[in-house]
Amino acid sequence: MGFPSLSPPPWRLLLCSAVLFLWGYSKANEERASVPPRGWNSYDSFSWTVDEDAYMQNAQIMAEKLLPFGYQYAVIDFLWYRKYVDGAYTDSYGFDNIDEWGRPFPDLQRFPSSRSDKGFSQIAIKVHEMGLKFGIHLMKGISTQAVNANTPILDVKTGKTYVENGRQWTARDIGLTQRTCAWMPHGFMSVNTDIGAGRAFLRSLYRQYADWGVDFVKVDCIFGTDYSPKEIITISELLQELDRPIILSLSPGTEVTPALAANISEHFNMYRITGDDWDNWKDVSSHFDVSSSFAAAKKIGATGLQGRSWPDLDMLPFGWLTDPSVNQGPHRKCNLTVDEQKTQMALWSMAKSPLMYGGDLRHLDSSTLSIITNPTLLKINHYSENNMDERTSNGEHCSRLRSPCHIPLSKNDEGMVVGLTACSDEKASGWYMLQQDAKPDHICRNYEINNDKTMSFCLGKTKPRLASDATIMDKKENQAKFHLAVTKIDDTCLDSSASHRRTASETKFPMFSRCRWHAKQMWELNEKGNLVSSYSRLCATVEPRQEQGTVRARAWVATGNKGEIYLAFFNLDSTRRKMAAKISDLGKVLGRTFVRKNLCRCTEVWSGRYLGLVKEEISGMVNPHGCMVFEIIC
Questions:
Q1: Which of 437, 516, 524, 584 is the most exposed place for a label (fewest CB within 10 A)?
Q2: How many CB atoms lie within 10 A of CB 442?
Q3: Who contacts 283 (Cβ-Cβ below 8 Å, separation ≥6)?
C-alpha cells in the first residue's frame, strides 16, 4: 500500500523564499570595508605579466599563510586582457582582447580557464573555495581599440545594442578622445557619463564583473591629477545596483590631498593618496607628511561606498619583486632593509592604510612573514582609534598637524610652484587676464614675497593647436579654452598631469611639454578668477617655493578598543638616535580617559620585550630608518 505524496504547505514555501531574499539582500547591503582591506596584489612582483598558474599559486599560499591574519583579497593587477607577445608593453596599442561590445576579456594564453566564458568566473570560483575574495584592476573609461573599432554599446536590460532617441549607440559616441589617460594615451580614454549610452557601457562592464564573481575592483587613471569625478560617481552608483557587494578602490594617488578627497570619498572604499610606492627609502619616507594630513583631516575610516573609506598608502613592496612597468616577472629581492620594512609596516598600521602585500608569495621568507603578520600591528591597523601624527620637540608636546590642500606640480626658474587644488579652495582664486597691446594674451596671478612685496606670475595664453578634426574648435564648449605657454619657448605648454606613472617620492618634475590637443593642456578662466583644468576640473594655484627642512623624527599615537595606547617612534635619519615621550604629554594628546596615572605598563611590539612599569617617560634608541612601537596600558 503506497503513501500519498506530500507537498509542503504554501506558508513554508513563502518562508523559504523570504529567507533567501533576505539573505541576498543582507549580503548586498552589508557594510563594505568596515576595516581597512588586506590582501595580495600582483603588480609589484609581476608588473602586467602575471598568468593563471602564477596567480593561483600565490592565492593558494595566501589562503594558507595570510588569510588567518585577515589578508583576503587576491587581486590581478593591470592589463590582464593584453596579449603577452612581442611588441606589447604598458602603453602599446592593438594587443588587447575586447569582445563584440568593446569590453576587455582575459588574455586566453595567460588565463586558459577563461576560454569557457571569456571571463574570470572559473578563477573566481577556485579563489572563493579557498576562502579568499577575488579582485581585478581596471582602467577608467573605454579602450582606444574599442573606440577605433566603433563597437556597439550593450544594453544589459535588453541584451541588444543600446538604443536612445531612435538610434543605436556605439563606442565613438561615448569616447572622449581628448581625454585619454595622461600616462597611457594609447590605451584608454574617459567616457561621456552625461549621456545614457556612456552610463550603459559602464553598467555593462560592472554587471559583467559581478557575473564573473569579482569582489574588488581597483580603478586606475581616475584619481589625483587624473581626477574624473563624474565617472567615479557613476561607477559608485552602478555598483550599488548590483546584487553582489564589490569594494571600490581608486588609483593613482599622485598629489592627492584632503581637499581633493573631501567631497568625493563617500563614493568609494579606499583611495590612493600617493604615487606608486616602491622598495626604496625615499618612497617610504615620503608617506609621512601625506598620511599625517589625512589623519588630521579625519579622513581615516570616513563614510565611504555603503560603508567606510580608507586613505591608501599603496602596496607593501617586500620579498621577491619586479620593476615598474616592465615585461618581466619577479627577479630580484626587496631593496629595503629589515628596519625600513618594519618602519613601513608600522606607519601603514598606525595610519590604518589598507595592507596589500606585493611580493611573490612563492618566495615568502619567515622574516617577511613575521613583519606583515605581527599581531599587534594588525590589531592597530583594524581596531585602533584616535590615530595621529604627533611630533616632539625638546621633550615638549607640540601639535604640528597640517592639512595641505596644495598640489605641487611644477616650478619655473624663479622658484614659483604651480599646482592644482579643489576649486573651492581660496588659494585657487585670483587669476586674471592681462592685456598687452590691446590683446588679452597673458593669464596672471599675484603673490606676496616676504609679506611686503607683491609680484605677478604670468603665462602666455595661446589658441590651442587644432585637432585632426579642425571643426572641433567650433564647438561651443571649446571656444573658451586655451593653452598656457612658457614665455620665450615655442610649442611648450603647461600640463595638468604627468605623461608617466609617478612614484611616491617624485614631487618635483617638469610639467611643460610639446603643445597638442589634449584636455590635460586645456585651461579655462572663469568669472570667479579660477584657472580650471579641462582634464581634471581642478584649479591652478601658484605660490613661492618654500625650502623646508626635513623632520628627521616622527611619532604617531593611537588608542585601542580595550584602553591601550599605541606609541610609534620613527627615525627618518641615517644615524641612530634616542627618542622619548613623556607620559604627561600622552595625556595632553589623548585625555585622561586613557592616561589616568603617570605609571604605565609598557611592551615594545617588534621585540616583544616587556619594559615593566614606566614612570614619566618612554624612550628608546631607534635604528637608522627604523622604528619602535609601544603598547602601553596606564
A1: 437
A2: 18
A3: 277, 503, 504, 505
Dmax over CA atoms of the chain, in Å, equals 111
As a residue count, the chain comes to 634
Whole-angstrom distance, CA of residue 619 vs CA of residue 628: 9
Q: What is the pLDDT of residues 287-323, one digit of tens each?
A: 999 999 999 999 999 999 999 999 999 999 999 999 9
Pairing outcome for strands 355-357 and 270-272: unpaired
- The residue among 139, 81, 135 whose CA lies nearest residue 110 is 81
Handedness of CA 375, 378, 384, 389 (dihedral sign): positive
The model scores a pTM over 0.90: no
φ, ψ dihedrals at 578, nearest 5° = -90, 135
Residues contacting residue 527 through CB under 8 Å, at least 6 positions apart:
none
The SS3 assignment for 197 reads helix
pLDDT in tens, 440-492: 688 888 877 666 677 788 888 877 755 544 334 345 566 678 888 866 566 78
The CA distances from residue 486 to 411, 441, 510, in Å, are 11, 12, 12
Cell of residue 164, nine digits: 536612445
* Ramachandran region, residue 150 (left: φ > 0; alpha: ψ -120 to 50; beta: rest): left
**What's the one-letter identity of residue 435?**
Q
Sign of the Cα pseudo-torsion (210, 113, 252, 224, in order)? negative
3: its cell numbers = 503513501
Contact in structure between 104 and 79 (CB atoms under 8 Å): no
* Predicted pLDDT at 502: 74
| Cell numbers at 120, concatenated | 574570470
499/591 Cα distance (integer angstroms): 48
**Phi and psi based region of residue 625 (left: phi greater than 0; alpha: psi -120 to 50; beta: remaining):** left
Query: 504 is written with which cell numbers?
Result: 611616491
Contact, 78 vs 41, CB < 8 A? no
**Residue 485 near residue 493, CB atoms below 8 Å:** yes
| Peptide bond connecting 440 to the previous residue in cis, omega within 30 degrees of 0 | no
Burial 49-74, CB ≥16 within 10 A → b, else e: bbbbebbbebbbbbbeebbeebbbbb
Written as nine digits, the cell of 36 is 581597512
Cell readout for 622 is 631607534
Q: At 287, which helix (H) or strand (E)?
A: helix 287-296
Q: Please tell me the distance from the alpha carbon of residue 494 to that of residue 169, in angstroms, as a whole number.
A: 35
Main-chain dihedrals φ then ψ at residue 10, nearest 5 degrees:
-55, -35
Cα–Cα nearest to 322, from 45, 108, 17, 41 = 45
Element (H, E) at 291: helix 287-296
